[in-house]
User: Fold FAD-binding oxidoreductase from Thermoleptolyngbya sichuanensis A183.
Amino acid sequence: MTLTAPRTIDWDAIASELAGIEVIRDAAQVAKLSKDYYTYSPILRPLLDDKVADLVVRSVSEAEVLQVAQVCVRHRIPLTVRGAGTGNYGQCVPLEGGVILDLTQMQAVKWVKPGLACVEPGAKLVNIDKQTRELGWEIRMAPSTYRTATIGGFIGGGSGGIGSVTYGQLRDRGNLHAVRVVTMEDTPRIIELRGDEVQKVNHAYGTNGIITELEIPLAPAYPWAELIIAFDDFMTAARFGQALSDSDGITKKLVTVFAHPVPTYFAALRNSIPDGKHCAFVMVAEPSLEPFADLVKEFGGAVCYQKSAQEAGKGTLLMEFTWNHTTLHARSVDPTLTYLQTLFPADKHLTLVEHMYHHFGDEVMMHLEFLRTGGTAVPAALQLVRYSTPERLREIIQYHEEQGAFIANPHTYILEDGGRKTIDPVQLAFKEEIDPYGLLNPGKMRAWLERGSI
Assistant:
């Protein structure tokens, strides 16, 4: 069992113990800062809509984080860490009330070296890039919420994104070098985890320590051109995406493929995309545009939108129509839509992708994001689903799994039930060491909830 905050807690006294740190108690603000984009899921909404913290603390330093941790441990108060709240599974929603720790004011980029940067958790990804690009480097990957997401939130709740077609996923060795975390022991400590040890907190929803500093690898910065390629046939578009992802000599950052009618949900691009077409949205380094054009020609595609890197820096970024932003745009038109997260097996012929495309038709609209896993480019998918009932959604998920597709279920807030599917004994042992009372984001880690039966 997790430990629920006592009903009789004196929040005025708690606020006094946090003197010198910004404390937010306005009910509307606290409610807003207790939410993320779990509203994408009709399954999660009734489970999380009424969950709210008792107060929010906004720290500006590691010393303040230590102070907050000490107060919460002393009073056995649940503590949920928050970045910008751009996650989709209720990662930062406090299931048992208590304190929300907002780290968005810890924004420093402490140092930048060739290929490596040291940053605080509240630094926005776009701002990290702004500084590292001055030295010819950029972050390796980012979610579609690039302009608003924080690096701590991305590491705690994300898995990959724009850049994953080249660099894989956050969990891959080398994509996170080191972290500093504050523990929730009787006397909170600062621990540094390096190398493989970072997996103890990587994508752990803030259940395994409070991240206060990160060392992240950087990639060479390229001028990224943005293009949309239109195709008459979806599978031709999909195979073009696979071929581009496999083209080692073409430098790319994004390979996204949409089946019609998904592009019709993008109001800002409506005049750029011909009616009825299937599309590939790509970011390609400008020096690679000539060989890229030959690949487009080989597959019979037509460029219907193109911006140079300089032009792309103004206005909406093409990446802001891909990954989870696709679902955001679609739901702004039709709020009944929801989505899946699917990883298809490595197969250059895309046999299972083709089967699912024809089997479900418009009920499950195909949206592919190519990424590297195990050294191979594979199609992941964030399909748009015309939602009807929980039972039908479960049937759709079950059918995918029976056919050999891996579903990272976006309709659960339990860490292991989403993408991991298995208990991680290393993460559990680390949590037992640094959070013995189970105060960090309680209710999200199945390993902790079921530890007595493991």
The longest helix spans residues 62-75. The two ends are 14 Å apart (CA to CA). The CA atoms of residues 387 and 393 lie 7 Å apart. The mean pLDDT is 95.
